[in-house]
Structure formats: C-alpha cells, structure tokens
Amino acid sequence: MKALHLLPLLALAGPALAAEGMWLPQQLPQLAQPLKAAGLALNPSQLADLTAQPLGAVVALPGCSGSFVSAQGLVVTNHHCAYGSIQFNSTPQRDLLAQGFLARSLSEELPAEPGTRLRVTVDVRDVSAQVLDAPTRALQGKARSEAIERHIKRLVAACEQDAGHRCSVPVFFGGLQYQLIKQLEIRDVRLVHAPADMVGRFGGDTDNWVWPRHTGDYSFYRAYVGPDGKPADFHQDNQPYRPKQVLKLAQAPLNEGDFVMVAGYPGRTNRYRLPAEVEHSFGWQHPALIKAYGEHLDLIKQATTGRRDAEIKLADTVASLGNSMQNWQGQQRSYAGSDLLARKQAELAALTHWVQADAQRQARFGPSLVAVERLLAEQQARERRDLLVELAEPTPLRLARGLYQQAQQRQLPDAERRLGFQERDQKARRQRLAGLDRRYDEATEKRVVAHFLLQLMAQPQAFEQQPLLKALGLQPGMEAAAVAARLDALYAGSPLLAERLQWFERGSAAFESSQDPFIAAAVALYADDEARLAQSKELGGRLQQAYADVMQALIAFKASQGQAVYPDANSTLRVGHGRVQGRPGPDGAQWSAFTTLRGIPEKHQGKGDFDAPAAQLKAIQARQFDRYAVKALDSVPVNFLASLDTTGGSSGSPVLNARGELVGLLFDGTSDAVISDWDFNTRTTRSIGVDLRYMLWQMKVVDGAANVLKELGAL
Fold first, then answer.
1. Cα gap 636→627, rounded to integer Å
2. pLDDT band, residue 424 (cuts 50/70/90)
C-alpha cells in the first residue's frame, strides 16, 4: 500500500463508533482503540493491508460484493447478486431460476452473464494533487470538468499499463479528494451453485426490507484465468484463479452480542448532503420514482403473464425495479416521521455562522456557500425536466444513440475519447450488446414505452424541451392509439437489434446514410445530445468547485468541534463493525437476533413469494438438522440482525467475526433503517445477514452439494 493522505479523525467516541461508519481500510489503524474495545481480535493494522487476510479475499462484483472461499477461486455472494447470471442461463425448458443450479464438476459450470467482472483491489493512493493541480483549480465550468477528466484518463492509462488490471479515480467528499484505485480484473466468471428460487428469494417482494426473514440469499461463482495465470476472456482452456487470500469458515458459533465486521463495496450514501438536496430527494424525486417504477412493474406483469419466456427474460429487471422502489418507500416512511430536514437546516445554519464569524473563512468559503444553493437548484430543475425520458426512450433508440456516439468517438485518438468509449471499454460494451436479447421482450417494451411517452407528452412545453418526441415522429395531441401505432411502425421498420453487433463496428458515415428509423432518430438527436452534454459539463464544473469548498468548510468545522469524519460510500472498499443484535420492533414487539428453520413452514403458502421447495420442507419437518442446529434455538439459524452500517452494493459482503472468519453474508436491511443512507440511527439501523450455518445446512441436507462443501472444507 502506498501512502494515502487521509483527513484527520478526531475525538473518536466509543458508543457512536459501535456501528456507524463505512470506513476506508486505511483509516482503521486510527480506530484501533475503539475497535479493540468493541471486541476485534485482529490487529487493526492488518485490516489496512488490502493484500492480507481478510480484505485480500474480498471482491467487487457488478453492483455487489463477494469473497474468495477456496484456493480454486470459488466466490460466495448473494443469490440476488448472481440472479442475472441465473436468469441469463435459464430457459422455459431448463428453468434454473425456479429449480436452482449445481455444477458437480468444473466442466458443468456455466458462464456468468455477459460483462460480468470480478475485481480485487490491490492498491490505493491519493491523487488529489494531480487531478486538482493549480491550473485546474483556476478553471471554471466546462473547462474545469474537461481538465479533471483529462487528468483522470491520464492517471488511469498509466495505471493500466499493468495488464489485467482495471483502474479508476473515484471522488470523495463532493469533489474535494480523489483516489487512484487499482484492481485485478477477472473477466471469466462462471456460475457454480445457486439454490432454488424459493430458497434464495424466499419471501420475495413481500418480505423485502422486512424482519423476520427466512431467505437463503447465497450463490457461488468461480473466477477463471488463462493458462498463464493472468486474466483472460472465457475459454475452455482457462484454469481456476488461485487467490492470495481465502476466507476461513467460522468454527465457533455465532451468538447474539458477538462482534462482527462487514467488508465490501457499498454503493452510495448521502450523509453529508445539504438541505436543498434532502428536500429535493424526499419531496419530489423519491415519490416520482416510486410512482414510475410501480407503473413500470405493473405494465411488465400485465404484458408477461402467461408467457414464461418473457417472465424469464425480464426477471432481473423486475427484481431490480422492485428492490429500488421498496428501498425508496422505506426511506420515505422513515423521513415522514423524522426531523431530518430541520436538523440539516440547523447544521447548515451553524456552518454558515462559523464561516461568517471569521473574515478569512468568509473570504475562502462564503461565496461557495451561496453559489452551491443556486447551482443545485439548476441541476434539480434539469432532473425534473428529464425524469421520464429514460423510461420513455425505446431500447433500440438508446442502443442507436450509444452506437453512433461510439462511431463518433472512434474517430478521435484514444486519449481524447470520452470516458466509457475508450479501447479499454470496448470488450465490456460488446459483451453487454451481445447479451441484450436475453433481457429484451419487444411486446412488453412497447407497452412500457407508450405509457411513459404519453406522460412525457402531457408535460408543459414537452415538445420544446424534449427533442426525443420529435425524433420519434410524435406530434402534440396524439392519442394513445396513434402513439401505439407509431411505435409499431418504428419497431417493425428497424432491424437494428438483430444487426447490433455489425453496427458496433461501423463508422459514422454508415449511420448518417441509414434508413433505419431508430438510427435516423439517433443521428437527428446527436447535436442536441452534444449541446446538453456541454451544458452538463459546464454545470458540473461549477458545482464541483463550489461543493468541494463547502465540504472542506464542513470538515474544518467538524474538526473544530472534535468530530470524526468518514467519507460517504462511493463503491470503494469499506469496512464497518457492529454486533449481532436484535431491536425493538413495531407495536411494542421485540425483534430477536436470529430466525430459524421453523419460520419457513410457518410462512409457506405453496404459491407466490412463499412456496418453499418440497425437499426443504420435508427435511425441516423431519428435523434433519445435521450438525448445524443451535441448542438454544432448537433449530438451525437462518438469518440474523446486526448493527452494521451498510447500503446498496454491500449485498454479498462477507460478515466476519472478531477473528476475520466468515459467519454469513450481508443481503438486506429493515425498511425503517434504509433512511440510514441519509441519516444513521444507532437504535434502529440493522442489517440482515444469511447465517453460514443455514447455507451449509441447505447445501448438505437439501441440495446435496457435496462437491462444493468439500471444496469449502465444510464436510
């Protein structure tokens, strides 16, 4: 690990740190005293070494986390994190979603969905001085945005000279700090084992964000590399990757009150957001998205009922939409009964008073405190204008716009291309393109697009503000039947989806002469797309400058009060800690820390979200607990609650005991705790994990996954 400049941690209060904080690994040695007091048996410095045990075993997956659990590259993550790969390999004739999957040998393992990458963080260093050098700090608006992008591309290109690695430069504290993160990128990932859908997803949307839970949310991948041991594309000659570190399975029982840690790649939190952002998100954005996603889900259900092939194709989409919608609903319920906005307003007032109390601070931070409010209002107005566009845009048009953009970018030297269109991005783009038809159902798509186009057309000034409508040949005042007929004509006249891989290689001239209606629309929209991008860069540059100043003022203000500072989650490797711990529930109930197998037949209905497999029910009824039963519970533990600070992206993260051994997998939280993305509450915040003992019981007693258990050293 190279030296990383970190903002100071001051006055680390024990009780607050019992759960709060998704800490950078490099910060943990500074937390040594409270970590040891909480029960950590490892040396905290060991947790700062990304190549040592246990963090060397933790990996990033698309939108999720996972960990190596065997010397043969076996990776454990959540069932819902592997759901896309299970869906991709499913057909009505071989329905892996419903039945589950077990490869009894390496040769039976199935390729993960296209574009799946497994990344292991190997190095982190602060590059704030390189990204925000003196000339860049002197720039404003679009020029500042483009200078930052140039610096990032240069740093990434130099880092990726080490073949087989993927590098990125995420931002911290609203643009105040940048880090260069280097990750080993494994491109050949294969599905090894997934339990049946009504094990991995037992409770479905009904139980999502709910306690008590009885969900076996686990699955296994395997990482492969070429014969030379380096990352390679899928090939039959590839060999299992041999990780430097592998998590050990816990041998000591997990009990209520035990110290636990979680290590993974949490997506995004908003703990430092300003009052205007809180009001915008909870007052408009979340309600609007909940409404739109609910309508989207209803339309998919209507269009796919009775068509199992379409249900399979859209299963991952349905799961993603439903999870996001329920998360926002939980946040809204918690927000409605809170004083979050009032506290944020009071905090900003205190910060403003502190800045204005000193002439030097006022000169340094005062203008940005004023500017950030105006810039946020401008950004939010654009979000309101464009919310429905993503839902209303046909997939073939979105595809055509991306392909035409790529054709334009390919005319430039690689270093001058936009992020996402460089040579480093081409393989993943092609793989996602190749797998598109496994996630696409035209009949459903047209129904959804027509619904949201009509809503978009009904907005004031829609035809002036949204060139998308003109590009699709829509006119003011068109009725639903006319819109549907226009869409039928567009889709019928376009062979783009069938020819998408050929268009991936074509130049801009081919697009400009094409008669395909969606390609013609993409070409017509290009000038407006470029203008909007330029406007976005202009606003982004000004907002980055102002927001970074405000965050610097906030950090200095908190430091003056002796308060600790940790950065918001941003999909970088983090570590949190807490305890296995129940909590008070609604209506005077007390939530216990564990659920057991007893709850599965109690919830079983034989249909819908509660249709447990017959083999599982039979084993539970016969009390075939093997060696996984807990005497005090008189059953096998299934899920547990822990006071861990987590969010989206934490799914699949290993939950570790005080010795860094695997005791379970993080997969969810409770609905009244999802507000912790914005406002952490030690009393109510709980994360939900699937207990390792349940995973092993299901694999041994029900699924007969002896080969996987042997590899885990669990037989």
1. 9
2. very high
3-state helix, strand, coil in the chain (%, to 5): 50, 15, 35
Chain segment 587-607, per-residue pLDDT in tens? 788 999 999 999 999 999 999
Residue 657 to residue 380: CA distance in whole angstroms: 43
DSSP line for 146-199? HHHHHHHHHHHHHHTTSTTEEEE--EEGGGTEEEEEEEEEE-EEEEEEE--HHH
Helix pair 340-356, 517-560: axis angle to 10 deg: 60
3 or 242, higher pLDDT: 242
Please report, as a single letter, which amino acid is at residue 282: F
Task: For residue 419, report the phi and psi dihedrals to the nearest 5 degrees.
Answer: -60, 135
CA distance 358 to 533: 39
In contact, 575 and 55? CB cutoff 8 Å: yes
Give the span between the Cα atoms of 680 and 647, in whole angstroms. 11
Residue 564: band (very low, low, confident or very high) from pLDDT cuts 50, 70, 90: low
**Cβ within 8 Å of residue 225, ≥6 positions away:** 186, 188, 231, 232, 238, 239, 240, 241
Please state the length of the chain: 715
Instruction: Lowest mean pLDDT of 123-132, 157-166, 212-221, 432-441, name the range.
Output: 432-441
**Does a cis peptide bond (omega within 30 degrees of 0) precede residue 212?**
yes
Residue 147's nearest CA partner among 132, 128, 169 is: 132
- Residue written as tokens 């996984």? 628
| Contact residues for 540 (Cβ-Cβ < 8 A; gap 6+) | 145
Helix axes 517-560, 480-492, angle to 10 degrees: 110
- pLDDT classification of 13: cutoffs 50, 70, 90: very low
Containing H/E element for 396?
helix 395-409
Place of tokens 């609905």: 671
261 touches 18 (CB < 8 A): no
Residue 14 banded pLDDT, cuts 50, 70, 90: very low
- Highest average pLDDT, of 70-74, 268-272, 460-464, comes from 70-74
Is it the case that residue 342 has pLDDT exceeding 70?
Answer: yes
Q: How many C-beta neighbours within 10 Å does residue 550 have? A: 24
DSSP-assigned letter for residue 281: I
Rg (the chain; Cα; Å): 26
Bridge partners, 578 (sequence order): 260
How many Å apart are CA 645 and CA 108, to the nearest integer?
38
Closest CA to 4 of 25, 23, 31: 25
* DSSP class per residue in 461-522: THHHH-HHHHHTT--TT--HHHHHHHHHHHHHT--TTTTHHHHTT--HHHHHT---HHHHHH
- Which residues, 6 or more positions from 492, have their beta carbon under 8 angstroms from its beta carbon? none
Using CA atoms, how far apart are residues 181 and 156, in angstroms rounded to an integer? 9
What is the Cα 702 distance to its own chain's centre? 31
- Joined together, the tokens standing for residue 535 give 């406007």
Q: Mean pLDDT in the chain?
A: 93
Q: What is the pTM of this model?
A: 0.89
Indicate the SS3 state at residue 446: helix
- The residues carrying an active-site annotation are 80, 217, 651
> Using 50, 70 and 90 to split pLDDT, how confident is the model at 70?
very high
